[in-house]
Amino acid sequence: MGKVVMYSSVSVDGFVADGNDQPGPLFDWLSNGDVPLDESGVVRVSQTSHDYTRSYWDQIGVTLVGRHVFDITDGWDGKPPGGIDHVVVVTHRPAPEGWDPEAPFHFVAGVAAAVAKAQELAGDRIVEVAAGDVGGQVLAAGLVDEVRMDVVPVVFGSGKRYFGSVDAQHLLADPDVVIQGDRVLHLHYRVRR
């Protein structure tokens, strides 16, 4: 089975969105380089960020998000972001009315069941868990293998926390990847068990 990786861009003070639920400059690093990160050519990063991010993206089989992220993105119009094969949405609500049943989205109640479904779909590929409330719940349940963060040089002061409402200590190993890109620091930690 593939690894479960919690991931997001994050402010230096640990937020994935500001107080208005907006990412602000957290994704600016995805448009300030010369190297296309995907086929669209819209996402352009430094060569260093490309080499790190592209190899990670190519390993992702499933992205797991909460219903809030699904709703604010309008479910990416039924097309998983970044060429991912499937999206698992943690929710107690059914798919939105009129949702295309052929879209590769799976609505699952509870984080343990959602991770199990995502791992089934991903096979030996990575299950990427969006940081924030659901990511924090998956971490608290002991289901996260690695934490990846793209730390952006901005301080929000308040907003949506990277680890959500986690209120217990969780030990991570020393970072085994520390890569400086252009206006971003890529970090990778294994979760200690």
Automatic annotation (TrEMBL):
Pfam families cross-referenced by the UniProt entry: RibD_C (PF01872)
Residue stretches in coiled coil: none
Extent of the signal sequence: none
InterPro entries xrefs: DHFR-like_dom_sf (IPR024072), RibDG_C (IPR002734)
GO BP field: riboflavin biosynthetic process
Molecular-function GO terms, alphabetical: 5-amino-6-(5-phosphoribosylamino)uracil reductase activity
Start and end residues of each Bacterial bifunctional deaminase-reductase C-terminal domain: 87-170
Record protein name field: Dihydrofolate reductase
Species of provenance: Amycolatopsis saalfeldensis
